[in-house]
Design brief:
The complex is a heterodimer of chains A (288) and B (186). By secondary structure, chain A is mainly alpha-helical. Chain B has one domain: Arp2/3 complex 21 kDa subunit ARPC3 (Orthogonal Bundle). In chain B, β1 and β2 form a beta hairpin. Classes of the chains: A mainly alpha (288), B mainly alpha (186).
Chain lengths: 288, 186
């Protein structure tokens, strides 16, 4: 643990208001688009399909007018690890021994299939990172909450607590800065009593024990706070869900169904690319 | 609105906030040797489930997973964060932490409160470790041998740490007495 400052180190999301066409979409459309693209990228196991997904993410970033420098911020620390992961995929995970054997040392056999698997893994991660970044650039946490509530509203008829779920997200977002201040207070208080949070060589048990004087008061303070919150909500006769109006209304435009339709076609394309055997053709094209 | 429901909502929100906070500030990581660290981020999920039931645990687990998905993409703090951009690794396994912890607590609390809390902490943490690692292995990111080693070397101390914190917090909150150390002020 370094220092006593927690509040300034927390960022949830990274909304970048550029007012682009993607920013103006309805929160529900944004959530549906994110869900579709992530599902497609996770299911798809073909190189061509994932390259299509990656292209979609890059096109989205361009449409959202997000500087690429920002977008790649999340990739930079991940890159060495991605390379390590790819190497591991090539060396350690036994492939199906399909494709040409490129080399054989000791117990390690490297085939073209291994390289294909490594490329698929890397591109999937890069595409996912860019897609999630794109979402956080274009949707604020408020939109996330409202979007969730709108999205699950139809399920309310069968008893799904859509409003309560959205309220939990709102509360969590609201409580994070409060908890940060609480944690700062507790760390300072314990340090003033001589608690040592410095780094040093010590056993695991001592490390865990060292965290206790901070973690336990922290949890208890949070629970106490939530009890106050319950009381406050009840005293004000809080009722949620039905017939409740909102301060901020989001309106859907023509661009919403169009955007969702385009993404649906794109996802179909991503998933179909694997079926059509394009991978092998692409592979032969680059000389594999 | 029912007071019980309001409490479920508020505890769900606050525990989710703690899970997010512990992840974002690294307070939830206890550094160990060779850059590995024990994570106690499952604790808020376990406590939420023990106090308010399996649905609340499920929701906290979902938000905890969603946040680790976002963090893996925009602000990876360690190399392993990259894996978590895949929702099959970050969200799906975390849904089971709360229900598993609640199930263990529920089935034991009638007999013995303290062991029930300890075991539900262990169950919640192990659910997290085992399901996340199984998913990583299933997707072929790591060889199974390595996964087994991580599960034993990292997972078991992690479960112990989670159990201790769960016990200490819930016992203090519900005023359950245990052990020989008691405050002189009471």
């Amino acid at each position: 643990m370094r220092g006593f400052e927690f509040l300034q180190n927390i960022t949830v999301g990274q909304y970048l208001p550029t007012g682009s066409i993607l920013h103006r979409l309805h929160p529900v459309s944004k959530l549906i688009i994110l869900f579709l693209l992530i599902t497609a990228a996770v299911i798809c196991s073909s190189l061509t399909g994932l390259l299509l997904g990656l292209a979609a993410a890059l096109a989205g970033l361009a449409l959202a007018r997000v500087p690429l420098r920002y977008a790649f911020k999340g990739l930079r620390p991940a890159l060495p690890f991605l390379i390590f992961l790819a190497l591991l995929q090539i060396v350690a995970i036994p492939g199906n021994d399909v494709g040409n054997v490129l080399g054989r040392w000791w117990i390690i056999t490297i085939t073209t299939k291994d390289f294909l698997a490594a490329a698929v893994t890397m591109i999937r991660f890069v595409a996912l990172i860019l897609l999630i970044s794109l979402f956080t650039f274009t949707a604020s946490t408020r939109e996330l909450t409202h979007g969730t509530e709108y999205l699950f509203k139809p399920l309310q008829k069968i008893g799904f607590p859509a409003h309560e779920f959205a309220l939990i997200i709102t509360l969590a977002m609201r409580f994070i800065p409060l908890l940060a201040l609480e944690a700062e207070r507790i760390v300072r208080a314990q340090a003033s009593r001589g608690a040592d949070f410095g780094r040093g060589r010590m056993s695991l048990i001592r490390r865990v024990r060292r965290m206790m004087p901070v973690l336990i008061p922290f949890f208890l303070a949070a629970l106490r706070r939530s009890e106050t919150m319950v009381l406050a909500m009840e005293a004000r006769c809080y009722t949620g869900g039905k017939d409740r109006t909102k301060l901020i209304q989001f309106k859907a435009h023509m661009s919403d169904p169009i955007a969702v339709a385009i993404v649906c076609i794109l996802c179909a394309g991503i998933l179909a690319a694997g079926r059509m055997g394009l991978d092998m053709r692409l592979w032969h094209l680059i000389g594999g | 609105m029912d007071k019980k429901l309001i409490r479920k909502i508020v505890i769900g929100g606050v525990m989710s906030a703690i899970a997010i906070f512990l992840g974002a500030t690294h307070l939830g990581f206890i550094p160990w040797f060779a850059g590995a660290s024990l994570t106690i981020m499952a604790v808020p999920v376990i406590i939420g489930a023990v106090l308010e039931g399996p649905i609340v645990g499920l929701v906290i687990g979902f938000l905890f997973g969603l946040f680790s998905l976002i963090q893996g993409a925009i602000a990876p703090t360690g190399p392993a964060d990259v894996w978590f951009v895949n929702p099959l690794i970050s969200i799906l396994p975390r849904l089971f932490i709360g229900p598993a912890a609640w199930l263990v607590y529920r089935s034991l609390k009638g007999h013995v409160r303290v062991p029930a809390l300890i075991l539900s902490g262990i169950a919640g943490s192990l659910t997290n470790t085992v399901l996340v690692l199984a998913m990583i292995g299933f997707l072929g990111h790591l060889p199974w041998l390595m996964i087994g080693t991580i599960a034993v070397v990292n997972g078991l101390p992690e479960a112990a740490a989670c159990a201790i914190i769960t016990l200490a917090v819930v016992a203090a909150w519900q005023k359950i007495e245990y052990g020989r150390r008691r405050s002189d002020l009471e």
